[in-house]
Write a structure and sequence with these properties.
Strand content: 25-35%
Number of helices: 4
Largest sheet: 5 strands, mixed
Structural class: alpha+beta
Order of helices and strands: EEHEHEEEEEHHEE
Strand order of the largest sheet: 1-6-9-10-3
Helix content: 10-25%
Radius of gyration: 18 Å
Number of strands: 10
Length: 156
């Protein structure tokens, strides 16, 4: 696990925006994680280069969404001090699933053909105890692609 920070520290938010106060509507809505799962087919790109490319792309994007690299200090405020978004990479090949009493390796096609909530949750980086606003998990399937999943902590 590592923290992805905005690439260009010269574009940090102004001092008066270092603390972002949530709106009244945000304050009265119960805390919730908003999960997003994006599945991609396999490419010929070297996995190490792809990982570096993803990290760099996230870092460039976070420059414009500085709130996502902050931390929730309470249900009213996000501290925008460039803590970074949580980033995790996982190899999915070790997961197994029981199907008619036979253990089979899980590949992306099985996940997409027979989606199960319990299985899909394993691809998400959500943590109920985290104060991070954004967490990203890249799931590499052994033979046929990857899933880029992220959770946005609405407020905790």
């Amino acid at each position: 696990m590592e923290a992805i920070k905005p690439l260009n520290l010269l574009l940090q938010p102004p001092h008066h925006l270092k603390t972002y106060k949530l709106s009244l509507l945000d304050q009265i809505v119960p805390p919730v994680y908003i999960p997003v799962l994006l599945f991609y087919s396999a490419t010929t790109e070297n996995p190490w280069k792809r990982s570096l490319h993803l990290k760099e792309s996230f870092s460039k994007t976070l420059v414009y969404f500085y709130i996502f690299v902050g931390r929730l200090t309470n249900s009213l405020v996000i501290d925008c001090n460039d803590y970074g978004a949580i980033y995790v990479e996982v190899q999915v090949a070790i997961l197994t699933k029981k199907k008619k009493e036979v253990q089979v390796a899980i590949d992306m096609s099985i996940v997409l053909e027979e989606p199960e909530v319990g299985l899909l949750r394993q691809f998400l980086p959500c943590d109920d105890n985290s104060q991070s606003v954004l967490a990203i998990q890249v799931n590499d399937f052994a033979c046929d692609g990857m899933a880029v999943c992220f959770c946005i902590n609405h407020h905790r």
